[in-house]
Design a protein that fits this description.
This protein is of the alpha/beta class and about 200 residues long.
Length: about 200
């Protein structure tokens, strides 16, 4: 069963050979512009002065499913967008690959899940995923109002697909946002992400 799961979702276990850049903690987050699922162009630069969460997303990945089936991701989105945080999900799955859907289908999935994100952006060429060095779905990044990356990595410390593990996990994203937004230093700024490998185009 475990072997089948690893083959199905492409569990990320090492970065060797991926050829991805790395956006480093303490450095400015690279700007980008991508279309959302409603056809609107969205630029990171538009959100200067706000906290921004980037969530790499693949609706078919069982690790992503863990956080949506348990409502963990939606509850985080709702909690922090209500405080003015911008929450952007990015789908970097290549055409024909797992998780790549037409915009209208992604909107249907979002409505079914009850997602409370600010926007779901489409990156089928994988340019922005590679720019940030996103390795898995989910892979999480937090950018402060000054445009500086203050956290990157896993959503939590329970590296499983079991929704029940959410209840006992240390949620790195929640803690980092709480600390940063109350003027405290972020205690854990980087962790190793876990999940399905981002389904990048081979081009």
């Amino acid at each position: 069963m475990i072997a089948k799961l690893l083959l199905t979702c492409g569990l990320f276990v090492a970065v060797t050979g991926l050829g991805l850049a790395e956006t480093e903690i303490g450095n400015p987050a690279p700007n980008f512009t991508l279309p959302d699922t409603n056809g609107k162009k969205v630029s990171l630069a538009n959100f200067k002065g706000k906290y921004v969460v980037l969530e790499w997303y693949n609706p078919d990945c069982p690790f992503v499913g863990k956080h949506y089936r348990s409502s963990n991701m939606q509850e985080l989105q709702k909690e922090f967008t209500s405080q003015g945080v911008v929450w952007i999900s990015i789908d970097s799955s290549a055409p024909g690959a797992q998780g790549n859907y037409p915009p209208e289908k992604l909107n249907q999935i979002s409505a079914h899940d009850g997602a409370s994100r600010t926007a779901l952006l489409l990156d089928p060429e994988g340019k922005i995923g590679r720019l940030y060095g996103a390795k898995t779905t989910p892979d999480m990044y937090i950018i402060n109002p000054g445009g500086i990356l203050v956290y990157k990595g896993a959503i939590d410390n329970k590296r499983s697909t079991d929704p029940a593990d959410v209840k006992t996990a240390t949620n790195y994203v929640k803690l980092a946002l709480q600390q940063a937004m109350t003027g405290k230093p972020v205690a854990t700024t980087a962790t190793r992400p876990y999940g399905c490998s981002v389904k990048y185009s081979s081009n």
